[in-house]
Here is the input.
Amino acid sequence: MNSVKKQPVITGPTNGKNISVAGNNYRILISGEETNGAFATIDMIVPPGGGPGPHAHSDINESFYVMDGEIEVKSEFGTTIATKGTFVTIPKGGVVHAFKNISENNAHLLCIVVPAGLDSFFMEIGTPVDFGQVIPPAQLTPEAVSKLQKIAEKYGQEIYPPDFLDNV
Here is the structure.
């Protein structure tokens, strides 16, 4: 068997593609483009009250490691408070989930998606920013929501109303 050795990928502390997604800062540490679609790793800074609303993706395993802060993780199976040092995995299958920073400081998460794809979704819907730059989230008009839903579908994502998980 002939295997080709590949050079290690090293991303410095401020390098990577920095994007703002709905007021959250995501830094793509390694993209699906760089891993042949195998996985992607995203460094997430989530401000107080920030985080994605209810959504699902049936073909992606999504894992988070909480490096700092406190997030409320909701899914169809219930609600959990994840603090520093907590590891959360949303397995393939399409479970509806969301998370929100419930602390007064930024939450810092390391997100790994297998296979890649979520990184490309973020790159398409996000706004490129400089490392550490924070921009407020844009208003979600009906037109913006419709556009987001169409882009989400392209990447195997389903977006649900903000109150979808309120009774779990």
Notes: The helical segments are 118-125, 142-154. The mean pLDDT is 93. The chain has one domain: 17-129+138-159.
